[in-house]
Design brief:
Elements: H1 11-20, E1 24-30, E2 39-51, E3 56-65, H2 69-75
Length: 82
């Protein structure tokens, strides 16, 4: 398995892929240092991977930033841009 393919995946999918291959893993979290953008802890994504040893992969994950109300409306198709 090419662990680089895990980068950008939602954490739950990356864990599922590793479990399917019976690969051990650890998770490290990084947090946003900006207090301007709140994050959604339930939406974590893999931002970096590294092979710790022959059997263990380390996933560095970060939570996505929350969408503002206007961005959420656009993504749901409730508002169009001109």
């Amino acid at each position: 398995m090419d662990i680089r393919n895990l980068i950008g995946m939602p954490l739950r999918y990356a864990i599922s892929a590793l479990r399917e291959k019976n690969m051990a893993y650890t998770i490290e979290r990084t947090v946003s240092r900006s207090h301007f953008f709140p994050c959604e802890e339930e939406n974590s994504y893999v931002i970096r991977v590294k092979q710790i040893d022959d059997e263990t992969v380390c996933l560095l994950v970060n939570d996505t930033m929350k969408h503002s109300d206007s961005v959420s409306r656009v993504l749901q198709g409730g508002e169009t841009q001109v």
